[in-house]
Design a protein that fits this description.
By secondary structure, this protein is α+β, with helices and mostly antiparallel strands. The chain is 18% helix and 39% strand. The protein has helices spanning 6-18, 68-74; strands spanning 3-4, 27-34, 40-47, 55-59, 62-66, 78-82, 89-93, 99-100, 106-108. The strands form two sheets. A six-stranded mixed beta sheet has the order 4-5-2-3-9-8. A three-stranded mixed beta sheet has the order 1-6-7. The two termini are 18 Å apart.
């Protein structure tokens, strides 16, 4: 399960609308890929279609899809949004991460 904070929900709905997506029928695709200063990095984009291997979650009115491989790294993660000093953007609070980089965009297990 991936959770979505209230602030992240508001930003997701706004950005999806700006990009021509419908937050009630389309998805936020969350994934993990190799890279970043800690070894793995988060990937977030909008998607209209679910693939056969995707896991689907809905939290706080946001529909999330995660590929099977990424799901193992993201169990229990909360998607947040921050407008802090390091710049505005989505933040992944991942309880599985042993180490994260300073910007929070990459992690290792």
């Amino acid at each position: 399960m991936i959770k979505v904070s209230e602030i992240a929900k508001k930003k997701v709905v706004e950005l999806m609308s700006d990009d021509g997506y419908n937050s009630t029928t389309d998805f936020v695709r969350v994934g993990v890929k190799s890279g970043g200063c800690s070894g793995l990095s988060y990937d977030l984009k909008f998607d209209k279609e679910k693939q056969d291997e995707d896991k689907v979650f809905e939290d706080n009115g946001v529909r999330i899809i995660v590929d099977k491989k990424s799901f193992l790294y993201l169990i229990g993660t909360t998607l947040e949004y921050s407008g802090g000093l390091n710049g505005a953007g989505f933040v992944f609070n991942n309880p599985n991460a042993n180490r994260t980089c300073g910007c929070g965009e990459s992690f290792s297990l």
